[in-house]
Structure formats: C-alpha cells, structure tokens
Design a protein that fits this description.
445 residues, alpha+beta, Heat Shock Protein 90, 3 domains, six-stranded mixed sheet, nucleotide-binding
C-alpha cells in the first residue's frame, strides 16, 4: 500500500523533472535567440562595412595609402574571423583551427603587408567576410524569426484577439473560434516554440559549418604543416641522439674513469694493508678523494640532463639560479604566472643556458639581462648583453642547436647582433600554463 507522502514525492519529482525539461528548452531557446541576433548584427554591422573598407584599402595599395591601411583592416578581419572560430567551437563544438602563417619577428610596413597579402588564409577570410553578409544575416535572422514566431502565438496573438476580435499573423482563426480558438492557438504556438528551438540551433550550426569550410586550413596548408612537423621531429630526434652521445661521452671520460681508478686504488690498498699500512692509508685517502670527484661529476651530469632546481622552482627560479652561477651581473625579470609543461621548461632553460654560455665565452660583455613573460598562450624569452656583438646563428652550432630544440615545440628564435653590440636573442614558444607559481619571479643576479 502506498501512502500519501510517497505519492506526493513522486508527483513532486515528476513535476520537477518536467519543469527542468521546460527550463532547459527555455534556456536553449534563449541562447539560440541571442546567438542569432549576434550573427545577424555581426553580418550587417561588422562584416559588411569591414568587407567594403578592406577591399578599398587593397585597391589603394598602388596609390601608397593602402600600404598603411590594408594591414590595419586585414588584421581587423582576422580578429573577426578568429572570434567566429571561437564561437563555432564554444557554441556548437565545430573546431576551426587557425591557419595563418607564422608572424615574422620584425616587420616594417612593406614586410607586414607582404606577410598578410601572401597568406592564402587572408583571402579566404575576405571571401568568408563577403559571403557572411547574406548567409550570416539570413541564418541568424531565420533562427530569431523561428523562435519569435511561436512566442508571438503564445503571448501576442491571444491578447490581440481579445482586443480587436480577430486573429493575428498565422493565428488568424482566433477570432472565429473564441475562447476555444485562443486555447488551441496557445497550445499550437507552444508546441511550435518547442520545435523551433532545435530548428534555430540547426540553422546556427549550419552557419558554423559554413564558416568552417572557409576559415579552416586548406589541404595544402595541412600538407605544409605535416612536412614542418616531420622536419622538426627529425631535428628533435637528432638533438636527442646528440644529447645521448654527450651523456655517454661524459660518463665514459669522466665519472666512469674515476670509478675505475677508485676501484684500482681500493684493490691496491687491500693488498698493501698487511705489508705497508702507511701506503695503504694513502691509497684509501686517494680513493676517497676520487669518489668525491666522481660524485661531483655525476651531479653535474644530472644537472645537465634536468636540473633539480628546474623541477623544484620552475623556469623563473632555475633561470635566476643559473644567472647567479655566472661571473658577470645579470638582470633577471620574469612574469610567468604558473608552471609550464616540463618539456617546454626544459627546452627554454637549456636555450637560455646555451646563450648565456656564449655570452661568457665570446661577447666580452660587462652586463647581461634576461626577460621572460607568458602572455597570449606564448612564452617569450629575451636574452641580451652589452658585448661586442657579431653573433650569427649560421656560424655557430650552439645557436643552430637552440633553433632545432625550439622548432620541436613550434618555437622560434631571432638574433639581433650588430658589430659593436648589443646582442639581443628573442625566443618564443607556444605553450600553456598549468599550476600557479608560488615563488617570486624577478630580481638581479
């Protein structure tokens, strides 16, 4: 036998479930309504004038004024296209990768214009902007109209029928059937409203798929990307193989040789212990000294593989510790509000270490500086010195090794080093942050 409380609980839960479903439909409908309005307004209010001024600025390039204006409007067009990529993924799960070519480190007006105009993705953005005017406005407005059509039948048509004694819009039968017509119209309009939610969402998703067809990388771009990844992977394998050979050489020539000598001294000491204790004691003392030197070399080797301070304190702490170990004052400024991924930290650390080693050996500098910051999903590290300059990556295997190490992570390196100095090395690595940092991040070494 079921008591009244159980019935009440079941009824309440049923009503709650139905109310939750209605609330979810209402939430989705409101989101589709807002998104449809955004797309319609964006199409007429942003992409239409942007298409016009961008086309005019490109046409004015031969006159000279377009050299300055075209990059401005093309960059603005990229901003709109990137926002559309974000909305497509956040709203409908339609991922649109960014297809643009890498930005050069230093650009004058002509180089900036050439970088933008020579990129095929720029012209696809412009084509999308042109087609988005009718399609974005039409699909966005259609989504809004479909949703408002049913709402008008629920809230507007019955009230208007009671005031004017005739139907309104699609619900013209209200005036003919009185109260029953009003109730039937409200039910019909409510059902239409529920059905209109997935229809509106489908229309907006269709716009996202249209955007994907033009704003995503082309097959040629993907092929170039695969070739670049294959090249950087090969470079990374070469760097790893060279690193393993270095470790093997250091072990063989350093710690292993000392351990062999240590073993021989201990063996001789065992033989001399009975006949010549004094000599045996000297041999044991030499063995103890050799063991300390071997331990020191092993610690240095471990630091060369992955410094403990890098694992404990992150890139900023490791760079500060590295600066303190060098024989010249180094100003360190970092703004990294979290921990980087371990491979990226390691690559950036050893790149900085190699550059600082070059500063000490070749630059004749009195001071050096390091600036590291993370912003916009990228780590930028700048290492400079006031030395004699003349550094050229083409003439040094160390800098070429840095380039290969960074390229494995899609990183770049630019060197500015005129004769007489100063030398400035700028490195960039795309990366994300993980846990927040807890240590101070600036100082002077």
């Amino acid at each position: 036998m079921v008591d009244d409380r159980e019935i009440a609980t079941r009824d309440g839960s049923g009503r709650g479930g139905f109310a939750d479903r209605l609330g979810e439909i209402g939430r989705r409908g409101l989101l589709s309504l807002v998104r449809g309005l955004i797309q319609a307004v964006l199409a007429l209010g942003v992409t239409l004038p942007l298409t016009i001024v961008t086309a005019l600025s490109i046409a004015f390039i031969p006159l000279g004024v377009g050299i300055v204006l075209a990059p401005v409007f093309l960059t603005a067009l990229r901003g709109v296209a990137n926002q559309q990529r974000i909305w497509a993924e956040e709203w409908f799960g339609v991922r649109i990768p960014v297809p643009y070519r890498a930005r050069p480190e230093k650009m004058g007006p002509f180089r900036r214009l050439g970088w933008l105009v020579s990129d095929p993705a720029t012209w696809r953005d412009l084509l999308w902007c042109l087609l988005n005017v009718p399609l974005g406005f039409g699909l966005g407005l259609a989504a809004v109209v479909v949703l408002v059509y049913g709402l008008e039948g629920v809230f507007v048509a019955p009230w208007l029928a009671g005031v004017t004694d005739y139907g309104w819009g699609p619900f013209w039968m209200i005036g003919d059937y009185g109260v029953f017509g009003i109730v039937g119209t409200v039910v019909l309009a409510a059902a239409l409203t529920v059905v209109s939610v997935p229809i509106a969402s489908g229309l907006l998703r269709g716009h996202a798929l249209f955007s994907q067809s033009l704003l995503a990388p082309t097959r040629t771009a993907l092929t170039e990307r695969v070739e670049h990844l294959a090249e950087t992977r090969s470079d990374a394998v070469d760097v790893s193989a060279a690193e393993l050979r270095r470790i093997e050489r250091d072990l063989h020539d350093g710690a292993q040789a000392r351990l062999v000598a240590l073993s021989m001294n201990i063996g001789l000491a065992e033989e001399m212990m009975k006949h010549d204790p004094e000599t045996a004691q000297k041999l044991l003392a030499e063995a103890r000294s050799a063991s300390g030197e071997a331990l020191t070399e092993l610690r240095g080797l471990v630091r060369g593989i992955h410094p403990p301070v890098l694992a404990e304190r992150g890139l900023d702490g490791a760079v500060q510790a590295l600066a303190l170990s060098l024989p010249l004052p180094i100003d360190v400024r970092t703004d990294i509000p979290g921990r980087l991924q371990a491979p990226v930290e390691s690559a950036a650390y050893f790149a900085v270490a190699e550059i600082l080693a070059n500063v000490v050996k070749h630059s004749q500098a009195q001071r050096a500086w390091i600036q590291a910051e993370h912003a916009g999903g990228r780590l930028q590290v700048i290492v400079g010195d006031d030395g004699i300059g003349g550094a050229d990556p083409a003439n040094g295997s160390g800098m070429r090794g840095i380039e290969r190490r960074l390229a494995a992570f899609d990183g770049t390196m630019a060197v500015t080093s005129p004769q007489g100095g100063p030398t400035v090395v700028t490195m960039e690595l795309p990366c994300a942050l993980s846990s927040p940092k807890t240590l101070p991040s600036s100082g002077t070494a």
